[in-house]
Write a sequence for this structure.
């Protein structure tokens, strides 16, 4: 079968949406670091919308930070790929044309630096996952960005805006601090210039985008009549909230559906503490119960009750600006989680728990305990993660632990001992619990719930209302 490409684009079936603009005229104005499925189904679609509306400044150079797989898949198809938008009603296919260049940083760092320094480049976006912000040095995303900005400064070009699109609280401020550290190591004067000329607004990004499976490739080929080596499936919902604080002219992202606000923090908190918290909870509870996907987990009455209760408890910790929206947000999330066509795997979400728990569950647990608010679902979720780290589900089958701290987590979680001993050892992992571990009654509270999970198994440890069964 022929391959998706600029040449085969015109002959696609009429029901396939495609770039209706001259791709050759589109200029690269965005450098994206970490070109994976989330970027391709989220920010790149927004840039594709801007290009389609006639603004030619927003084509994307997609940079892979480690492996060449994305470049190898997409260059033979001129950067084109399919987004399969799925829900219970069916699948809509859209070919996205925004990616005009694919670079692999370890192979050609100079090309990435040159692109960051290019006159047309006006925006940098990043999806490097939570752990990407811990990495340092010239091969890291932020290190590479600092080198690109050094070249930009040396060439006498203006600054630009850099948007972190990862699920971290205050992602822009965190990025800015990391960037300052990398720049200082290169040249303190560079750090000063970055302070003046580079803006890192906070952003909240949202779209559920599972990893690509062979069935997606087969469906893309069937629908398009040509092969796409790396299509991406996603839910219909998409949201991008960006702090209105740019270096120079603001990109016209509102025209592509983004919301520009003065303070992203309430939005970020709502998303992390409701959506991502429920995702991670379902991942650890559901995987331990032997369930494969988010829709299978949310169909389980006790897990569904648990999630409803979690949202009530977490919503009570949200900033007043968004608290009243939580019930409607939760109702919408239930529908999104129940999407039967996505097959979003729980083990994909379970990855990197040590980097996800702090902003998804631990901060909420700490806030609720300090304020004397109900929080039994948060105890359950954290205890479920501790048990997940030990590597066995309820039936004794092995569970993978894909995490930057995997070896340490596994050793601690598997050490012989009662629930209280396990909890105390896990709470000592500072990267996950930080100051939450100083709460003297947290360990026994968690241990009671962990003990219930160990003795009864996951679903039997949950009452019909989603609370932990009393021992
Ligand atoms: C998920 C997120 O894998 C995960 O940890 O919770 O990727 C989630 O699907 C997105 O944040 C939704 O916007």
């Amino acid at each position: 079968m022929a391959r998706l490409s600029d040449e085969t684009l015109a002959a696609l079936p009429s029901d396939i949406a495609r770039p209706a603009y001259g791709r050759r005229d589109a200029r690269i104005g965005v450098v994206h670091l970490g070109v994976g499925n989330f970027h391709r189904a989220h920010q790149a679609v927004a840039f594709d919308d801007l290009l389609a509306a006639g603004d030619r400044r927003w084509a994307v150079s997609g940079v892979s930070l480690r492996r060449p797989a994305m470049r190898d898949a997409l260059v033979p198809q001129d950067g084109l790929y399919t987004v399969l938008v799925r829900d219970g009603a069916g699948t809509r296919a859209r070919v996205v044309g925004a990616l005009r260049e694919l670079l692999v940083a370890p192979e050609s760092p100079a090309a990435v630096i040159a692109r960051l320094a290019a006159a047309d480049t006006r925006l940098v976006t990043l999806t490097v996952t939570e752990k990407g912000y811990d990495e340092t040095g010239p091969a890291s995303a932020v290190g590479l960005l600092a080198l690109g900005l050094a070249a930009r400064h040396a060439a006498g070009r203006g600054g630009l805006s850099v948007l972190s699109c990862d699920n971290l609280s205050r992602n822009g401020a965190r990025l800015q601090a990391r960037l300052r550290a990398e720049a200082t190591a290169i040249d303190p004067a560079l750090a000063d210039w970055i302070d003046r000329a580079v803006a890192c607004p906070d952003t909240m990004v949202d779209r559920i985008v599972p990893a690509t499976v062979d069935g997606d490739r087969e469906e893309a080929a069937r629908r398009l009549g040509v092969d796409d080596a790396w299509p991406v499936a996603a839910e219909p919902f998409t949201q991008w909230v960006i702090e209105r604080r740019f270096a120079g002219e603001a990109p016209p992202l509102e025209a592509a559906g983004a919301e520009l606000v003065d303070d992203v923090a309430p939005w970020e908190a709502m998303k992390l503490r409701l959506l991502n918290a429920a995702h991670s909870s379902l991942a650890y509870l559901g995987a331990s119960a032997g369930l494969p996907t988010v829709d299978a987990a949310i169909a389980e009455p006790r897990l569904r009750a648990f999630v409803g209760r979690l949202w009530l408890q977490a919503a009570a910790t949200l900033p007043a600006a968004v608290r009243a929206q939580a019930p409607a947000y939760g109702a919408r999330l239930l529908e999104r989680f129940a999407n039967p066509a996505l097959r979003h795997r729980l083990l994909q979400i379970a990855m990197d728990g040590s980097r996800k728990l702090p902003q998804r569950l631990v901060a909420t647990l700490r806030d609720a305990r300090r304020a004397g608010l109900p929080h039994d679902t948060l105890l359950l979720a954290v205890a479920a993660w501790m048990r997940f780290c030990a590597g066995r589900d309820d039936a004794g089958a092995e569970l993978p632990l894909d995490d930057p701290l995997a070896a340490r987590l596994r050793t601690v979680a598997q050490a012989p001992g009662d629930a209280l001993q396990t909890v105390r050892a896990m709470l000592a992992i500072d990267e996950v619990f930080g100051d939450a571990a100083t709460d003297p009654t947290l360990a026994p509270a968690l241990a009671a719930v962990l003990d219930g999970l160990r003795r009864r198994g996951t679903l039997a440890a949950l009452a019909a209302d989603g609370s932990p069964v009393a021992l």
Observations:
- Residues 265-288 form the longest helix (24 residues).
- The chain has two domains: 6-261, 265-461.
